[in-house]
Structures are given as C-alpha cells and as structure tokens.
Amino acid sequence: MRHATEHADLAPTELDTALRGGPFHVALRAAIAARGLPLQRVQHHLSRHGVKVGVTSLSYWQQGARRPQRPESLRAVRALEEILRLPEESLIRLLAEADERTAAGRPALRSYRSLIEASDVLNRLQAELGWSLDGGLHTLGHHEHVRIGARRELAGRESQHIVRAHRDGVDRFLAVHHGDPGCSPRDMTVHALENCRTGRVRVDQDTGVLVAELLFGSRLRAGDTFLFRYGVVDGTAGVSREYVHRFGTPGGQYALQVRFDAAALPARCHRFTQHAPAAPRGGRQELPFSRPHHSVHLVEPRIRPGMVGIGWEWE
Q: Which of 44, 70, 105 is the last residue of a domain?
C-alpha cells in the first residue's frame, strides 16, 4: 500500500518535469501514464473530439519514433492537452521547441544573403545574353521533374514548358538552374531534349547559378504556342534538403515532382511558399510520399510571382 502511495506522488513530479523540459514524447508518455489511460481509451476520447488517430500513431508519438506534424495530427495534440488535463499549449510548445532545435542543428539551407547575391548574378548573366524579364513568352504550363541520388544529392532535373509568344520574333528561352550550396556549376551539363538546342551557357561558381540559352530553331509570332523540354545534370553538391523554384511573372500551371533514389528515401515531405527572399516562408503543408514510386509532388494551378518548393527531412 505504501509503495502505491509513493508511485502516485511520483507521477505528477515526473509529468511536471517533462512538461517543463520535454522532449515531447516523454511528456506525452508521462501524461498518459499519470491519467492511467490505455491507448485504446485515448483513441476513443480523440474520436469524441472529432479527431481520428490510430493507436499505432499514438504509440509511435509516445516512443519518439514519429512526431505529429500534419494539421490533423496537430489538432489531435491540442485535443490531447484537454483529454489529459494538461495546461493549454503545453504539448504544442514542446513540439515547436523540438522543431527549432532540429532546424538549428541542420546544415544551413540557402540564406537570404545568398538568394539576393544569386538574384544579382542572374540579372547580370541575363543581361549578358540579352534577355528581358519574360523574354516575350507567357508560360501556359511548366512541369518539372527533380531527381535526388543515392548520396542524397540533387542529381539533376528535367523541365517541360508550354509557352505562348506575346510578341513577334521570339526564338529562344533562357533556362536557369540554381544548385545547392557547395555545388559546381562549371561541372554541370545542359541537355536539349525536345524541340530545342543548347546555345550559350553562362555560370557563376560562387553563387551556383547556371544560365543556358535554349534555341527554338524558328521565330514565333505573337499568339503562337511552343512546347520544349530540357534537362540539367548536376550531382555536384552535398546532401539536398529542398528544391525551390522562383517565378518572376504570373503564368499557368506548375507541377513539381521530386523522385528519390531507392537507397535514399525521406522521412517526410512538405510544400512551402515564399513571396520574396526577405519574406518569411508560409503555406507549409505536409505532402504524401508515394513509396511505390519513391516520389512526392505538388501542383500549382496558377503561377504567381514568388517562390514555391518542396522540402524533406531525412531519417
């Protein structure tokens, strides 16, 4: 009897400590144990709150094998705070702090400064090749296929464009590739794959920017449409964690697919948007990963000026 009393006194102390310092899975496990609820009962209470979470997911969460990130999962965490009689935002706060620690320990992605420098370099290279803002072309559709290699590197990409000329005499397109930090654009290659051929190529080693002319072989008249496809072989940088595409002008549909080598599959993927390099990222949304096809994708029905991309986390 005395042993049971000591255990009852100990549980709140453990729970309080876990809620103050985390990590999330330890706090969740302590809270469930303190209330004496089996996971099946926790799942039942969640369903009464209108949230569906499997017992397996709850088990993974309290073991630290997985962390809730999807909007539905975060709804479940807020409901758990009420079900387990915890202070409001206590579990959500631990999740946010874990994300901050993860980001701090992760090798840096492109910084604001590097994006600005790359933008300045791009403007200079485009001017050297006599390219205006949109080149006289309006994008009707742009489908991009990115490949991540076995070393988790950006191995390369292919792009298919459907464009319409809005002035006479357009006969080329300027392709831009911005490699991951540490890449070597002089070691990349550009391949004209359909309805075009490669013209002049310019690179900037410091910022990782490559610009290449794709020549159509004929001049378009205003209103003419044209379809072409090209690829860039990269593989010159280290571990890749995201792919971002920047749009300067509005246009039609954009689809981005990222395919991973079978030897290097991500733990989870998400989409994001950014209005400008200096702006905070928004529009974060978890994306389903197709394990049979080793791929993830997003579709933007209408291109808007700004940046859109897919990020992923490695196991």
A: 105
Do 145 and 166 have their domain in common? Answer: yes
Q: What is the pLDDT of residues 237-274, one digit of tens each?
A: 999 999 999 998 899 999 999 999 999 999 999 999 98
Is the overall model pTM greater than 0.70, yes or no? no
Residue 4 is predicted with a pLDDT of 35
Query: What is the rounded distance in angstroms from the CA atom of residue 114 to the CA atom of residue 116?
Result: 5
Alpha-carbon distance of 245 to 243, in angstroms, equals 7
Q: From CA 181, how far away is CA 237, in angstroms rounded?
A: 7
User: Tens digits of per-residue pLDDT, 133-176?
Assistant: 678 999 999 999 999 999 999 999 999 999 999 999 999 999 99
* Residue 176 belongs to domain with CATH number: 2.60.40
Neighbours of 44 (CB within 10 A): 12
Query: Structurally, how many domains does the chain consist of?
Result: 2
Asked whether residue 113 carries a pLDDT value surpassing 80, the answer given is: no
**Domain that residue 291 falls in:** 112-314
Q: Is the dihedral of CA 116, 117, 118, 121 positive or negative?
A: positive
Q: How far apart are CA 87 and CA 90, in angstroms?
A: 6
- Judge if 150 and 252 occupy the same domain: yes
Final residue in a domain of this structure, among 58, 90, 105 = 105
Q: Which amino acid does the sequence have at 31?
A: A
